[in-house]
Amino acid sequence: MHTVWKGTISMGLVTIPVKLFSAVEDKDIKFRQYHKDCKTPISYKKVASCDDEVTPEEIIKVFETPNGRVVEITEEEMNKLKEEFELKTVSIIDFVKLSEIDPVYFDRTYYIGPDSGGTKAYALLSEILKKSKKIGLAKITIRSKQHLAAIRPYKNAIILETLHFPDEIRAIENLPGGVPEKAGLAERELQAGMMLVEQLTTEFNPENYTDTYRTALEQLISEKVNKNDYIATGQEKPAEQKNVVDLMSALQASIDRTKGQATPPKKPKTKAPKKATS
Prior knowledge:
By secondary structure, this protein is α+β, with helices and mostly antiparallel strands.
């Protein structure tokens, strides 16, 4: 696990140096997009409305108002706000009962681990949370975003759950079509439904539930790999021509191949000199 956040948790005058680690991981299978014809990856270019391809240095951040007007927010302005509001100390604001928080508010789970020098204070906070059966509410900044957070015990450790702020939860009254009422349910229908709930009620065991679609997709990929069912992609480089040749061996082979094929050139016949007559 890599450290997501490093800072301190404060409870009154007690300060606990801690590190934050993501408690969950994305198990989705990632696919890439390839061109059907040339079998090469699809790349995405940033292009302005004027059809010019732009570099990161040419891009600015703007906020678009409902009436279509835009205002620019510079990097300097963003950095100034980060320095002012980015929280490196998580101060517990309140203690509440976990049952008082509706699950709709929960966002993401992180493990809290003690940093150097914080082991004893970490253990103290863990025991306080267990014995009081309360959770601590605080604020934390992770990756430039401020979150409301719940700090609670989990097994022998402490976890932090980021929460949505109330204005991030959409009003149920805005549900398209409205919220249906009892719609004239008969008493026997309600009783039959309650009976079904009783029959299906059991203790929660997370090991009983798996992502069957992902498992089947992994199996399909594994079968294709085991069958060498690959496609030829435009990215594949042609095998390098190894030009490692022993020159002397090549010369000797050439000599052997031509041996006996060539005949030595015939020497021209020379006429014997005529004898002189007296």
